[in-house]
Amino acid sequence: MKVVSARTIDQALAALAGATSASRILAGGTDLVVEMESGRTRPDFVLDVGRVRELRWIRETEAGVEIGAGTTCTDIVGSSELARHADLVVESAREVGAVQIQNRATIGGNLGTASPAADLVPVLFVLGARVRLCSHAGSRELAIEDFVTGYRTTARRHDELIESIALPRRPVGERRAFRKVGTRRAQSISKVVVALALGPRGSGARIAAGSVAECTVRLRALEAAVAAGIEPGTIASAVRLALQHDVRPRDDVRSTALYRRAVLERLLTRLITDLLSD
User: Fold this and answer.
1) In the sheet that 24-26 helps form, which strands lie side by side, from edge to edge?
2) pTM
3) What is the pLDDT of residue 33?
4) Which residues pair with 166 in a beta bridge?
5) Which fold would CATH assign to domain 175-276?
6) Using an 8 Å Cβ cutoff, are 59 and 82 in contact?
7) CB 92: neighbour CB atoms within 10 A?
8) 2-168 and 175-276 agree in CATH topology
9) Is 226 in contact with 274 (CB distance < 8 Å)?
10) Contact 3, 12 (CB under 8 A)
11) Distance CA 52, CA 273 (A)
12) What is the pLDDT of residues 152-166, one digit of tens each?
């Protein structure tokens, strides 16, 4: 296995010119190193971008806020820009493992791994994130829902690098929430993770969940039900009905499909009720 450690984006893109489907990009290593040690992943080539400072930044723009792909969860938690414009990203970053993990884990790695249990990805779905990819051929942007294509798969080409994530400014009056359910707070992988953003009276509802399908999913049937207007006494039944269309939970070593569906239903009922209350 060949390993290249890049110090600049140009060096990283040059190294990726010959990458294959078996090649991997190493940022914080909180996922990839574990997979390599277990034998689950056997790369032919690893590009280490952990020292590429050009990927580690947060900045406000006229349109909202942008985050470099190498930005760590610790950076996110301490960011005043994100606290003002993307509070859910800060809240979800606080739930990414213990402090040691947060010091290493990056937003680009959390997104690029495309794990269905990724803590930050439902938030990025709800906030309408756009993903900027770069290569020697140029750069392009994708809506996050076009970027995440399935179980641990994305639209990133082998020669591309995730450069940054752009988040638009939030509408006035929007209310938001994030919740993660896991076995142990400090180290747990999500059994269920949800994010919501609702406008006044449920308008413009955006709801996403992880660990309840093969990848992070928008709960579109539920969004439609909430946006159409639901009374407090009908929220539980609306959630139950919508989830029949929106999620496909599975049994695995962390939990069962039955548990995930039940927890998701209760979480969403409670959160939607709270967000819609005066």
Assistant:
1) 2-5, 45-48, 24-26
2) 0.95
3) 84
4) 66, 130
5) Enolase-like; domain 1 (3.30.390)
6) no
7) 27
8) no
9) no
10) no
11) 44
12) 999 999 999 999 999
The CATH class that applies to domain 2-168 reads alpha beta
- Inter-residue contact 69 to 107 (CB < 8 Å): yes
Full DSSP string of 21-58: TT-EEESS-TTHHHHHHHTS---SEEEE-TT-GGG--E
- What contacts 26, CB < 8 A, 6 or more positions away? 32, 33, 46, 47, 48, 49, 50
Question: Domain-by-domain residue ranges, the chain?
Answer: 2-168, 175-276
pLDDT given at position 60: 96
Burial of 129 (0-12, 13-18, 19+ CB in 10 A): buried
Nearest one of 47, 85, 79, 78 to 63, comparing CA atoms: 85
CA distance 24 to 46: 5
Q: Report the run of H or E that residue 242 belongs to, with start and end.
A: helix 235-246
CB 177 within 8 A of CB 195: yes
Pairing verdict, β 58-60 and 64-68: antiparallel
Residue 3 has pLDDT above 90, yes or no: yes
Tokens 């959160």 — which residue? 271
pLDDT tens, 182-199? 876 545 688 999 999 999
**167 — phi, psi (to 5°)?**
-120, 125
Stretch (H or E) spanning 278? none
